[in-house]
Request: fold
Amino acid sequence: MFRLPGVCPFSTHPAVRAVTLTVALAVAASACDAQQPQARAAAPKAGTTSAAPASADLAAIEKALSERFRGAPVRGLRASVFPGVFEAMIGDDLIYFDAKVTHFIVGNLVEAATMRNLTEERSAELKAIDVRQLPLKDAIKVARGKGERVVYVFTDVDCPFCTRLEQTLQEIDNITVYNFMYPIDSLHPAARAKQKAIWCAKDPVAAWLDAILRRKFDPNAKGDCPNPVDATVELGRRLGVRATPTFFLADGRMVAGALPKDRIEAALNAAQARVAAPTK
Reply:
């Protein structure tokens, strides 16, 4: 996984590391060939994929991908905006490649006219979860204003970027935040015990805000009540949470990092619009 700004990284599953390393090595060996221009190819409309290939062609391409990546999960296979180039998510990485998978590229595809990061948008779409399946009873809920915009945050009490995100969320109105306790043991060995104690406090919301915002924590507090922290760590791993803070929007799209207020506001509003849009 490429290091994300504004996050505390979680350890990656060995299978994912292997796929990422394979992709990176292949890019280093083949980037020059992969960038050869297509002669006389008509450029597709900005932000759209090129003409859809036949289902039989896609089946053959998917088979070639599975063989190349030794059975790694393949999602979202389709033609890219470049004629003759396809895209798919292998594990957690969106890659671009030719029909025979002889060359492939990992990196960000940006639409020049708008500077939209198409790779980021497509990755978020493919990694989206069904937020209705999240166990909200296992989260610490904080609401402000009407609370109409909802976000689900996987957070570590000792992660400085989580504190930064919480500080920003304090400035946002009309929001409901579900905080899932997600300690990263390898970076913050005391966090798990702290977050269990926060959950077991008489007022978990107050204990959470004191700890994450003001670094106030009772060292004698005990986390020996029934609590969901261990289960939440396993849940986060299954959902692909690889760093803190990571949050899911109302439409299930994943966002990693302590984003500035304007970007969070935009993401919240866009997610609400997508949820409200009629299903095609």
Notes: The helical segments are 14-34, 55-68, 118-127, 160-169, 191-200, 204-214, 229-239, 261-276. The chain has a mean pLDDT of 85. The radius of gyration is 21 Å.
